[in-house]
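Model it.
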Amino acid sequence: MSEATARNSEDRLQQLREALESGELQHLRRMLHSLHPAEIALLLESLPQAEREIVWRIVDPDDHGEILLHLNDHARAQLIEGMDAAALLAAAEGLEMDDLADLIADLPEAVTQRLLYSMDADNRERLQTVLSYPADTAGGLMNTDPVTVRADVSVDVVLRYLRLRGELPEQTDALFVVDRYQKYLGALPVAMLVTYDPNRVVGEIMDTEIRPFDVGLSEREVTQRFENLDLMSAPVVDANGVLVGRITIDDVVDVIRDEAERNLMTLAGLDEEEDIFAPVLASARRRAVWLGVQLLTAFIAARVIGLFEAPLEKIVALAVLMPIVPSMGGVAGTQTLTVMIRAMALGQIDITNAYYMLRKEIGVAMLNGVLWAVIVAAIAIVWFHSVDIGIAIAVAMAVNLLVAAAAGVGLPLVLRRFGIDPALAGSVILTTVTDVVGFAVFLGLGGLILLGQI
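Modeled.
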């Protein structure tokens, strides 16, 4: 979110709170009516539970479905719990099939059954088609509303067909050309319909370069293709090449936003759907696990320090300088880890080219290791008037930066191999590695050089 957007959100939130405190509900209703459902959802997430429920009752019921889609899981569940079956059915009406598929998973079973019963056979089948695919695949993202035409008709026939339809689905920038068995053949951009000779045949002018997405394609690969090819929409086909739906840019933007939020939150061990006003017990329970993992790694590092109790008791300088080495290693390792996770997210790196990445990061670590080792050693020598201490911290610094680079490259690959999200677990393991190696090398060298013991 840009600074200007954040400032606008803060201004709206301030206006909303002032209207609530003054009881000017008509002004509040007009204000909410002027906002997009996504903006209203952001305001609702910014309110404590009691105020959230008051504002929800004022929101136009026609917007309930769209707003629920933009809320985090906790806020959505809380508001759904307070709605009766009729209100939930009304909220679901009018939603596109891909959006309805996202919402239906959170509805009570009785409401879901009533919703399915109220739909005609065609819409029920379309919804079941979307629900049959995992949510994080092209099949789960797609909408089942593509407009199709045959290759053997003229542009004029297509134009007359569109006029009879009267309207097109949102985000329609192209029609999809299929054969008699509904197999995808190509795309017909809408721009062509208004610029080409009406007598031209669709098969002659359709774009066959637009490749369809397989229903099983992961959402990450979907977003990469949209970004690389500058797509506004894309066809989705099943294993037999039959056109089953389309993905539009608005769905992809939602995936990108959710991925960015997920990466930010998981770096701190938090749920990406964390509600800032969730109950204390629920938030504490979610965070307790992460704190427990951090505590365990802290005890491992503390145990390493304990092995050098004798040198620390006799040499104050070691205790004073001790935090520097693991801290520098942690920063360097995090830089490498961040580059790796980003590269993996973009599909730029795998086991086949990881060696080149490792070699590059080792080179960076060697240069930075020598640079900062010399600087820190000089400071230590001037500070404590001891060349030995300077040598110990210089060697430890260089070694730890090299280990940090290797760990930053290797950990994400290993974690992904075992099905663990590198963004979630990588930083914890990396911090443990750099702490343990940093303490062990510095205190070990310090004890060896200064006291003749390890």
